[in-house]
Design brief:
It is built from eleven helices and two strands, in the order H-H-H-H-H-H-H-H-H-H-E-E-H. It has 313 residues and is mainly α.
Length: 313
Amino acid sequence: MGADRVFAYGAAAGLLGDLLLGDPRRGHPVAAFGRAAGAVERVLWRDHRGWGALHTAVCAGGAVALGALAQRVVRPSTAASMALTAAATWAVVGGTSLAREARAVGHALEAGDVEAARARLPHLCGRDPQALDADGIARAVVESVAENTSDAVVGALVWGAVAGVPGLLGFRAVNTLDAMVGHKSARYRRYGWASARLDDVAGWPGARLTAVLATVAGGDARGAVRAWRADAAQHPSPNAGPVEASFAGALGVRLGGTLSYGGRVEHRPVLNQKGRAVAVADIRRAVRLSRRVGVLALGATVTARLVAKGRTS
């Protein structure tokens, strides 16, 4: 069986495993990678871009090398290759955990318990929950669902289709490093520069595919395209912009505006200005759209892999 079918069956099994099992409460491989990356940082940290680039190369390169070695070891066995691809896919995607955390915040808001929603929000995103009222929390959840659909599901599948298990592990490593050091705090403004830029590059194709699929799977394709074209480029992130704008248009809501990260206030452009304000019920709608996008992404990446194989054979 060719590598294209190994990816198709393995990725499908991995997504099914995520749907049925979600992330483990303890011993998650991504958490283990995070601890290893933290240990490397403690050795290498300097307030310098070059040392940060070395940190990125060691951590992301190590994940890719581990994936390549594992893939080579199991290559003689089709069953083992599919099992490895399934395990890697399950380890790096996080659609079920994303949906679970979003719904937990939504349930708290529906019950009128804003404090419980604030307490749960940090499990989902890095916003300052104390600076948000109920509507602000709902907006933050919808934005996080949109962005993480690309980061936690679609982007991984894209790189899995391109490079197999090394692509899956490498993408998750890069995305995790960006979350750890890729922000503009005093400690990481220079040191995290390479991780942030590499994440922008690695996330580019998945973000565009996510935006396309949100347009297809959402309730308002014309609105999604309009918001994407009009507003995405104004977002400070080259990848979050298209994803959040297309979700906003598809759901008919406004995203963006003023937000706070760790006491730092940012004034972001409004995405889909013709939409209405986000309501609590939109959290469920965003989660359903995210699920549909994930399923379509599997179909799109598998199809692309099979077509590419057909052209080269």
